[in-house]
Amino acid sequence: MAGFHEGWQALPQSGLDAQFWSTQGSNLLLAAVAIVAFIAVVALVMFGADLVKGRIRDKVQLVALITPVLLLLAIGLVYPAIDTVWLSFTEIVKQPDPVTGINTEVTNFVGLSNYTYAFTDPTMLRTIINTVVWIILVPLLSTGVGLAYAVFIDRAKGEKTLKSLVFMPMAISFVGASVIWGSIMYDYNETGSQTGMLNAVLGVFGIGPINFLATEPWNTFFLIVILTWIQTGFAMVIISAAIKGVPPEINEAASLDGANAWQRFWSITIPSIRGTLVVVLTTITIATLKVYDIVRTLTQGRYNTDVVANKMYVLSFVEQREPLGAALAVILFIFVIPVVIYNVRSLQKVKETR
Amino acid sequence: MTAPVMTDQLASPKKTKAAEAKENLTSKWATAAAIIIAALWTIPTIGLFMTSLVPGDLYRTESWWNVALDGKLTFENFGYVLFSSFGDSSSAPPLLGNLINAIVVTVPTTVFPLVIGLMAAYAFAWIPFRGSNFLFVFIFALQVVPLQLALIPLLKILGPQGIGIAGQFPGVWVAHTIFAMPLAVFLLHNFIAQIPSDIIEASRVDGASHTQIFFRIIIPLSLPALASLAIFQFLWVWNDLLVSAVFGSIKTYTLTYPISNLAGNYGATAYLVPAAAFVSMVIPLIVFFSLQRYFVRGLLAGSTKG
User: Fold this and answer.
1) Rounded average pLDDT over A283-309
2) Domain encompassing residue B160
3) Which residues from chain A sit within 8 angstroms of residue B259, using beta carbons?
4) Inter-helix orientation angle A122-153/A274-289, to 10°
5) ipTM beyond 0.90?
């Protein structure tokens, strides 16, 4: 690395001193040791379980196989989820202790008041409505565009490359995508030349510059475009595989019967891949519910663009209003309950047929 | 028509009725629409790369295409954000530390869930026990629970009042591993359940224990599924912001955290953001394009059998 640094002598080398390298080196070492130790422990436990003799061996091995997962999920997801639900029915009051003067936290049960607040306060209500708009638009738009693209390029020349181009945003972080759209596509200058690509294009047609991220209520839609841009590739790849699974004989027969391309698309392709379409819509809906990175990076919820996931982060970790944040998390979960039920049902159907 | 299911191969050159019918749909308009979509999905990323080459003093006033026409594009921003400073002031640390942090966070959290998930997936797929079905469906359903629901209590468990590893790498590893579990178990189970039952039953009859089957049959046969899940998990952890923000600290933040912070405030150093964003994208893009085939396979295994 030393040789490379010499080219940058004009710049201050603030962070990269010996201490930096020793810290980063020991971090990398820590990661390597952790991986080796983890694999060693797993191997020891598994082979230890293999030394057990007799009929209980199978049981010991079963326990060794599933205990880690059950333990992690119980501690890390199940208990926390229950605790969050409880927290959402409480308020935390800080009172100075009369003797010591030190603040103590008292947790009071307040019933549904956090929920009442979430659905009556205009800012909170707006946040919830925005989230619903996200959940409806992102899956529909990405699945729609993904489906169209998959059909258009099916068996076209260079199909693989064409797929990669649209699939690529999947590898880009939500933060990276937000930077791309926020400071490259949507950038706005009040006067002078436009550095944002969209405003530059609009300028060619004589349309004045638009402050995309501050123009209500369309700004939420412009943020939705970013997630759609990321998710379309996912929808396209899976739909494309499903389309290739439709037996060509059906299309052939329909075409002999005089059905045109459009009719075959609606009465053969769509019904044949309906299951896949539902899976894609479901998966993208779940991803949309959790999205917070885009709003946090670009608007921090300003200009009425907040969504539940971001608001709950701010309430819980910035404003110290954890019960209200917990209530929002529960509301988010209530939104997904239909999706959970649908998925469990279809999973059980698959299991029964197996 | 001999195009096999779920491959990207082109159709056989021999034209059948179906192929001709297909061509009708792929009309001029469809081709034009496809080109427009492909362009819309590519131009923003190219725009980011070009903008990251614009010198800081021109960033606010000149568009990247004008700077390019003037021949003033430079790679200086990349060197600056990586090795000198990235932030509101020139004393802010450079991104190289966050880049190394990203490796320290991502590599272990790719290995841990894969191993633990594979063990459980084998048990659920091939060891009959009471409650197996219920537990598996329960784990599957947890996949849909928003992780926001678990953040506050889990932070208390991992934080100073609990076991005290929040804000350090082990805390971030544990959080990421837990949140990856439901999907890992589900995807690997789907794959392992498809292994022909003769193989496993024959080994059982020959007296092989579950440990032996796991190491000798399950691990070698699951390599394709493990590869795709590893890529998926790698991308997800590398690109994550929420878990990293909640369970990490200044010592552990990966690239997304400082970039997200600076991207929103449009200050004097805003010109560094595109270069930083591109730095954060390089490794995932390399992983993605070199291993895309396995990644896509993994997505399909998990998505078309739900």
Assistant:
1) 86
2) 104-300
3) 175-176, 179, 297
4) 140
5) no
